[in-house]
């Protein structure tokens, strides 16, 4: 972190948008996650119109993630120069367009086009995270990230619940709702969100062609002292989480012959747990025991929950497990970004967020692919056992930070 005589005044400047900005970011993240998670329970029912392969379903997530891997570092660097607000607005509008294309459907390639468009502008969460880091003092970052975690948890409740409810009327209805929700988020940003990076604090250098490579951006961040183990843990966490989440809806549908409302309620149970933990428990435990320890505990707990899914005897056993597993996952969501942010200068928070988004996008590209392939060729429970091993490996990597 930078150190200078006027660091206190810089801290006040960074927090200028204050609670109003955090509150609006909470709403934007909530709406973004609601839109995104609407797809999870309903996508298997839409994709099966065109293909019966699990890989066809998981490849949709991979296309989105591949586009995000390329674009997220660019969006992050642009937000360091142009500000968070305009970049976040572009991202949310791109999501709306992607959902509407997906809703039109008609062929498998149209579904892929919709996810590609959304992925190209898929810096929503990365730029929102950079915003939170901008308006938070270093000591407050992990605790303020629980606000984002609470929004994500509520989104994981409302999104699948909306999908389950609207899905009874038609599989495409939730997709149109996701597009409308993204337009609502765009309106909140345009009319209400204050900028967190004033002109005098923006990076003044022009964006060079050499900076457009995601690999160069990731390499530069890996060179930062103490950052490599955190990014490695984040990558392994994302690889496992996106794998088991991407196959979760299909697993529940096929193993237990679940209906859309049951798949939606399963995802909603996980969201309820995360929202409760982030709102009432996570902040206190992080303050008491520290970011690193709680992140490791969260990763191990998430792995244990993933392993349990493989052996669940009935659908109803998955509900308490989803509650406990999601509660553990919340610790990783809150702590890993804050631990990384505290190791780079303030002027590089957008770049770090973009790199984190790129790493997350790469893992989200690979995760559903390996999970779908393992599901098809090894067994329905195998992706969850492999995911458990990856969560444990993430905890071990973080132990070196």
Properties at a glance:
401 residues, mainly alpha, Growth Hormone, Chain: A, 79% helix, 0% strand, disordered N terminus
Summarize the structure.
This protein has 401 residues and is mostly helical. It is built from 15 helices and no strands.
Helix content: over 70%
In DSSP terms (H or I, runs of 4 or more residues), the helix count works out at 15
Q: Looking at CATH, which topology would you report?
A: Growth Hormone, Chain: A
Task: Please identify the top-level CATH class.
Answer: Mainly Alpha
Structure characterization notes:
- By secondary structure, the protein is mainly α.
- The protein has a single domain (18-194, 212-398), classed as Growth Hormone, Chain: A.
- Helices cover 79% and strands 0% of the residues.
- Helix 2 packs antiparallel against helix 6.
- The longest helix is centred in the N-terminal third of the chain and has 30 residues, at 18-47.
- The radius of gyration is 20 Å and the shape is globular.
């Amino acid at each position: 972190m930078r150190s200078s005589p006027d660091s206190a005044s810089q801290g006040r400047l960074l927090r200028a948008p204050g609670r109003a900005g955090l509150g609006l970011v909470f709403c934007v993240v909530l709406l973004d996650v609601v839109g995104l998670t609407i797809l999870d329970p309903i996508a298997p029912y839409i994709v099966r119109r065109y293909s019966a392969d699990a890989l066809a379903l998981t490849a949709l997530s991979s296309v989105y993630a591949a586009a995000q891997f390329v674009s997220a570092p660019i969006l992050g660097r642009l937000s360091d120069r142009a500000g968070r607000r305009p970049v976040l607005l572009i991202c949310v509008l791109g999501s709306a367009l992607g959902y509407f294309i997906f809703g039109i459907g008609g062929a498998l390639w149209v579904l892929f086009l919709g996810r590609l468009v959304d992925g190209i502008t898929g810096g929503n969460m990365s730029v929102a995270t950079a915003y939170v880091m901008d308006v938070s003092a270093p000591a407050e970052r992990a605790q303020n990230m629980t606000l984002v975690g609470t929004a994500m948890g509520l989104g994981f409740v409302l999104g699948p619940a909306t999908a389950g409810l609207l899905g009874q009327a038609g599989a495409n209805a939730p997709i149109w709702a996701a597009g409308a929700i993204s337009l609502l988020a765009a309106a909140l940003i345009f009319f209400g969100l204050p900028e967190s990076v004033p002109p005098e604090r923006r990076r003044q250098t022009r964006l060079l062609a050499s900076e457009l490579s995601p690999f160069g951006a990731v390499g530069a961040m890996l060179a930062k002292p103490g950052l490599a183990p955190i990014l490695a843990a984040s990558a392994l966490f994302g690889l496992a989480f996106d794998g088991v989440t991407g196959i979760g809806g299909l697993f529940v549908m096929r193993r237990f012959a679940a209906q859309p409302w049951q798949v939606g309620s399963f995802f909603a149970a996980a969201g309820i747990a995360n929202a409760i933990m982030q709102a009432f428990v996570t902040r206190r435990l992080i303050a008491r025991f520290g970011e690193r320890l709680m992140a490791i505990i969260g990763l191990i707990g998430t792995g244990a929950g993933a392993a349990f899914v493989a052996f669940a005897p009935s659908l109803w056993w998955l509900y308490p497990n989803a509650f406990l597993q999601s509660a553990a996952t919340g610790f990783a969501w809150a702590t890993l970004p804050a631990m990384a942010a505290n190791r780079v200068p303030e002027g590089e928070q957008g770049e770090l967020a973009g790199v984190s988004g790129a790493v997350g996008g790469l893992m989200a590209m690979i995760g559903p692919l390996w999970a779908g392939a393992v599901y098809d060729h090894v067994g329905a429970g195998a992706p969850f056992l492999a995911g458990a091993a990856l969560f444990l490996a993430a905890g071990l990597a973080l132990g070196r930070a």
